[in-house]
C-alpha cells in the first residue's frame, strides 16, 4: 500500500496553507498529524493532487483559554493537549475522552482538529465537541466562519467544511461550575476506534448523553431531569431510537446493549463528580 | 512555503541514530520505505502500512511515530532514531534489549523493532514508570506469536534495572 503521487507543499504558517487550499480546492488536502489522512492515502481512499503539510506551521499550535471557551489551533497535537496542565480545569470532559483517542504513538502526531475534520462516526473527538456544543472555525483565504458542531458533522466522514476551506481551530465551551462529566467506551483493543462511546454531562438543569459509534454522526439526548429509578427505561428507549446497524465489528443488538450499559456507567460517573 | 513536485526525487537530509545521512525521495514515499529501500536501514519493519500494527514505530525528534504514516520528505532536517541505534556498542545490548532476551520477550521478532522503540521512549521519558503505563503504550502494538506477558515482564524488569542504575550512579 503506497499513496498515489501528489505534490507536497510544506507550509510554515496557516496563512500559507489557507492560500494554497483556496487556490487548489478539492485537488488539495491538509496534512496535519497524518494519523487519519495517511492511512486513507496509503489505501488510496484519498488521492489528492496536492498535499498541504501544516505540521511546521507554528502559528497553528496555540492552545488558549478564556472564560467561555478552550481554543485549540489546527496544529495542536493530541499529546500536546493531553499534557497541557490546564486541560482538566478548562475541559473536564475532554480530559476524560482524550486518553481514549488512538495510542500514545498516534497521539504524538495526530491533531485535535485533524480528527474532527476526518469525522469518523466512532471517533471520540467529534463526539466530545458535539456533546459540549462546540464550534469549528473555518477559513477560506482570509475570511472566517464559525459552525456549530451540530451543523458541522453532516454524515459519515462528511462535514460542512468546503473543499477550499481549512479548519483554523476548534472551540470547546466551558461548562457551568459544578457540571459533572463522564466518558465510557468499548472497542476491540484500547486505542482502537470505539464500537460505542458515551459522554455524559450533568448540570443543575440538564442531563445530557452523547453517543458515538452508532449513527453516522454523534447523537445528543437531553433530559430536564433523570431520576435514577427511571434511567434504565430511558436508556432502553434511547438505545432503540438510534440507528444501530450490524457490521464487521458488532451486531445491532450488541450496540444497543452497549448504549444501555455504557450510558449508565457514564451517567454514574458524571453524577458522582457533579455531587 | 516549499513545494516539491510529485514526479521528482528530492533530497532528504536527516540525523539517523546520530549520523547525518541523506537520501532521495519522491513526495509520496513513506518514511518506512525510505529507511529500508533508500538508506538500507532495514531494522524498522513494515507490517500493516496503515498505522495499526506498530511494527514500524520509531522516534522522530524525540517522540514515538508510525513511520508508515509519515512521509520521508517530512523528516527533512529531523532527528530520527530507530532500533539500530539502541545498542550502545555492536557487541552490547541496551538494558531493555537484554531484558527482552532474558525474558523471552521475542519469538519471531517481527513486531520487536517497533515495541523496543516505544518502550525505550517510555522508559526514557518516565523514570518511575508503572505497569499500567507500560500496558497502555504496548496497546499500540500487535504481537502475534510471543504473547504480551513476556514483553510486559521484560519492560518491568528493564525499568527496575534502569531505576537502580540511576540510584547507584
What features would you describe in this structure?
The complex is a heterodimer of chains A (275) and B (169). With 275 residues, chain A is α+β, with helices and mostly antiparallel strands. Chain A has eleven helices and 14 strands. Chain A has three domains: 7-53, 2-Layer Sandwich (Uridine Diphospho-n-acetylenolpyruvylglucosamine Reductase, domain 2), CATH 3.30.43; 62-173, Uridine Diphospho-n-acetylenolpyruvylglucosamine Reductase, domain 3 (2-Layer Sandwich), CATH 3.30.465; 180-274, CO dehydrogenase flavoprotein, C-terminal domain (Enolase-like, domain 1), CATH 3.30.390. In chain A, a hairpin with a 3-residue loop joins β4 and β5. In chain A, α10 (228-241) packs antiparallel against α11 (252-274). Chain B is of the alpha+beta class and 169 residues long. In chain B, β4 and β5 form a beta hairpin. β1 (7-10) of chain A pairs antiparallel with β1 (2-4) of chain B.
Give a quick rundown of the structure.
Chain A is of the alpha+beta class. In chain A, 34% of the residues lie in helices and 26% in strands. Chain A has a five-stranded antiparallel beta sheet.
The proportion of residues forming helix of chain A, as a percent range, comes to 25-40%
What is the assigned CATH homologous superfamily of the largest domain in chain B? Beta-grasp domain
Computed structural class of chain B: alpha+beta
Query: In order across it, which strands form the biggest sheet of chain B?
Result: 3-2-6-4-5
User: Which regions of chain A are unreliable across 5 or more consecutive residues at pLDDT < 50?
Assistant: none
Helix-strand pattern of chain B: EEEHEEEHHHH
What's the CATH first level of the largest domain in chain A? Alpha Beta
- The class by helix and strand makeup of chain A works out as alpha+beta
User: In what order do the strands lie side by side in the largest sheet of chain A?
Assistant: 4-5-10-6-7
Give the overall silhouette of chain B. Answer: globular
Strand content bin of chain A: 25-35%
What's the main sheet of chain B like?
Answer: 5 strands, mixed
What is the CATH T-level topology of the largest domain in chain B?
Answer: Ubiquitin-like (UB roll)
Distance between the termini of chain B: 47 Å
Average pLDDT number of chain A: 96
Note poorly predicted spans of chain B: none
**Integer average pLDDT of chain B:** 97
Q: Can you name the CATH architecture of the largest domain in chain A?
A: 2-Layer Sandwich
Secondary structure tally: strands of chain B:
6
- The outline of chain A comes out as globular
CATH architecture of the largest domain in chain B: Roll
